[in-house]
Design a protein that fits this description.
Layout lengths: L4 H11 L15 E6 L4 E6 L9 H16 L3 H27 L14
Antiparallel strand pairs: 1-2
Helix pairs in contact: 2-3
Length: about 120
């Protein structure tokens, strides 16, 4: 029986032990990208801790951007498209967080890329 990929990705994400036990629920900031080349499908799932910040539409868009690469059989290229755009998305979300949370600018220190 063939189940929708979204269901399979959900169960894989939540039951395969991919993330530490102490990162359950809202503490899970994991991201899972699944490719099913024989069936031409892909899926993307984020942890509950990221759900307030990353919409389903944004995740669908990430997969759409990679679709041309995957249709050509360029799976590594498609993965890179997802990762680059996911990085840009998460960076823009994190840049907006202080303002969204009402944190005054003087309390957010710029690190200049050094962590």
């Amino acid at each position: 029986m063939d189940h929708p990929l979204e269901v399979q990705v959900f169960w894989l994400f939540n039951t395969a032990g991919l993330f530490a036990e102490d990162t359950k629920g809202g503490r899970n900031h994991g991201i899972l990208l699944v490719l099913d080349p024989p069936h031409g499908r892909s899926g993307l799932m984020i942890g509950y801790g990221l759900e307030p910040f990353v919409s389903d539409e944004a995740m669908d868009r990430l997969l759409e951007l990679a679709e041309p690469s995957w249709q050509r059989g360029d799976y590594p290229g498609g993965i890179l498209v997802v990762l680059r755009n996911l990085g840009t998305l998460l960076e823009s979300i994190s840049a907006a967080l202080p303002d969204a949370l009402g944190i005054p600018p003087e309390t957010t220190k710029k690190t200049g890329g050094d962590y």
